[in-house]
Specification:
The chain is built from twelve helices and nine strands. The chain has a seven-stranded mixed sheet. Strands 1-2 form a two-stranded antiparallel sheet. Helix 1 crosses helix 2, helix 1 packs parallel to helix 4 and helix 6 runs parallel beside helix 7. It is an alpha/beta fold and about 325 residues long. Helices cover about 35% and strands about 15% of the residues. The chain has two domains: about 100 residues, no CATH class; about 200 residues, Vaccinia Virus protein VP39 (Rossmann fold), CATH 3.40.50. The relative contact order is 0.10. It binds S-adenosylmethionine. The site of S-adenosylmethionine has 22 residues, from helix 7.
Length: about 325
């Protein structure tokens, strides 16, 4: 038996020695132990084995709408236990993100459709959609937003669902990603609020006055692209490559955004681990770094007035 055989982990027997049926918690414990021992990368919706084990188990048992601890002792059928086992083994063998295997990603509290045509939703911008951006701006009072580099459309759709008065344009260069965005727009029935457009950054974006431009553009520096974990290789490469210092798209957005913002409008942009690169590219600009729920400061907020005054290049 190999060191990584599933049989090295807690028993998959469908009954305890006591004769009781296996529970959701038995299945979660098995899956978590199996994932913990495996060479997989977290970061596509979960950051640890137990959370991913819970996600897989509740997905298979169709109990995602339940609070996990409260259903831990619920019996699980043999069929579901076996399906979870197969799912976890496929996750480990192929190193695909779980989200792709189950065609499901959770973002800003909503369950999105996802497949390999678009990056798995995980942007920190989801936290600010849920928590708002006060005192800088009141998202519920805004009329028009742009999700630039929208991928699966998760930011645009979550904005529309959370702020029902908001009209959102969602643009991306990648036609395949936009097909996924359209699936999500249909799924949540926000066709009246969200419109997709294919555009190389601002090229085909109408010069409307947006109250908010939200963007999670590609921002991985060139030299880090070769070191990305296997899970990232299943995602579209176009989603990552951010040029030599990771700021290729960020720079262009900083230069152009003011032309597309209303007078009181804001740009909200995520840029990963490129804080030092950004601060040294524009040493005179006092960037406002926002802290997400995971205590990371990878998002900046700028007003139109600041963008105009500084004249980014
Ligand atoms: C990091 S992903 C973010 C996707 C989505 N907003 C999210 O948070 O899940 C970056 C997106 O930028 C898109 N992209 C890459 N180059 C682009 C360009 N020149 N113009 C517009 N979008 C581009 C990619 O196709 C990808 O969907």
């Amino acid at each position: 038996m190999s060191a990584t055989s599933p049989h090295d982990y807690p028993s998959l027997d469908k009954t305890h020695s006591s004769g009781q049926l296996s529970t959701i918690d038995d299945c979660v414990s098995w899956a978590a132990a199996r994932l913990d021992q495996a060479d997989v990368f977290w970061g596509h919706g979960c950051n640890n084995a137990r959370d991913e084990a819970i996600w897989a188990t509740l997905h298979v048992t169709d109990l995602m709408d339940q609070e996990y601890p409260e259903i831990a002792s619920t019996p699980i059928s043999e069929q579901d236990y076996s399906t979870v086992r197969d799912l976890i083994e496929t996750r480990i063998r192929t190193q695909q993100p779980l989200a792709y295997l189950i065609r499901e990603a959770w973002f800003a509290g909503y369950k999105f459709y996802i497949d390999e045509r678009a990056i798995v939703p995980r942007s920190h911008l989801g936290d600010f959609i849920q928590d708002g951006l006060e005192p800088w701006t009141d998202l519920s009072s805004l009329q028009r937003a742009l999700d630039l580099c929208c991928g699966s459309g998760c930011i645009a759709v979550a904005l529309a669902l959370t702020y029902p008065k908001l009209i959102v344009d969602a643009s991306d260069l990648d036609a395949s990603a936009l097909e996924v965005a359209k699936i999500n727009i249909d799924r949540f029935q926000v066709e009246d609020q969200v419109q997709v457009m294919q555009s190389d950054l601002f090229q085909n974006v109408p010069v409307r006055k947006y109250d908010l431009i939200a963007s999670n553009p590609p921002y991985i520096p060139s030299e880090e692209l070769d070191e990305l974990p296997e899970e990232y290789l299943h995602e579209p490469n176009l989603a990552f490559a951010g040029g030599e210092d990771g700021l290729k798209f960020v720079r262009q957005i900083l230069i152009q955004a003011a032309d597309y913002l209303s007078d009181k409008g804001h740009l909200l942009i995520e840029l990963g681990n490129n804080a030092d690169a950004l601060e040294s590219a524009y040493p005179d600009f006092p960037f406002l770094w926002l802290t997400s729920r995971s205590e990371e400061s990878v998002v900046v907020l700028l007003s139109k007035e600041e963008l105009q005054r500084y004249k980014f290049q």
